[in-house]
Amino acid sequence: MSHPTLDNFLHLAEMVGGTLLRKHETVATAESCTAGLVSAALTQVPGASDFFWGGIVVYAADAKIDLAGLDPELLAQYGTVSLATTEALAAAIRDRSMATYGVAVTGWAGPLTGPREVVGRIFGAVADRHAVVSRRWQFDGDRDTIRVAAVAAVLNLLRQELVESGDNASV
C-alpha cells in the first residue's frame, strides 16, 4: 500500500500560495506532529519566498515555550496537544513573524504507548489579526498517513480562511 505524499497536496498549496501572492499577504507556521511538513508543502510553490515567512518546529513542550513563547501554565492546564495550545501557537507565530496568518498544528500521529483512541487526533488553527479559527480532526492510518492527512487538513483550513476573507477568485 502506498502512502500519500506531499506531492498529493501541491495543488492545494498552489491555491493557497497563489491567493497569498495575489493579496500580498504572508503566512508563518508553528508545527508539532507534522515537524515541518506544512512548511515543506508551501515551499514547493514557485514564489513561496514572497508569501512564506518561515516556520518553527515545536515538537517538545520546551520548544513551545522557548521558541513560540507559550505560557508554561497554558501547557500545564491544557497539555502540549490540545485545541487551546494549537490556537495559542497560531497566534504566537503570527505575532512573532508579523505575517498576515499564523498556522499551527499539533496531534498524535502514533504509535503511542498510551490510550489508542488518541492516535490520529489532530488539532489545527489559523490566526489572523482579528481571530483564531481552529478545528479538531480524527484520522485513521499509520504515522505517515496521519501526518500527511494533517498537512492537507491544515492547508485546507487556511484555504477556507482565505475564502472567508473575501477573495475567493482562485481558492
Written account of the structure:
- By secondary structure, the chain is of the alpha/beta class.
- It has a single domain (6-158), classed as Alpha-Beta Complex (Maf protein), CATH 3.90.950.
- Helix content is 41%, strand content 19%.
- A hairpin with a 4-residue loop joins strand 4 and strand 5.
- Helix 1 (10-23) runs parallel beside helix 6.
- It is globular, with a radius of gyration of 15 Å.
- The model has no long low-confidence stretch (mean pLDDT 91).
The fourth-level CATH homologous superfamily is CinA-like
Order of helices and strands: HEHEHHHEEEH
Query: Sheet with the most strands?
Result: 5 strands, mixed
Could you estimate the helical fraction of the residues in percent?
40-55%
Task: Describe what is shown at a glance.
The chain is an alpha/beta fold and 171 residues long. The protein has helices at residues 10-23, 37-42, 61-66, 72-78, 83-97, 143-164; strands at 27-31, 52-57, 101-107, 121-127, 132-138. It has a single domain, classed as CinA-like (Maf protein), CATH 3.90.950.20.
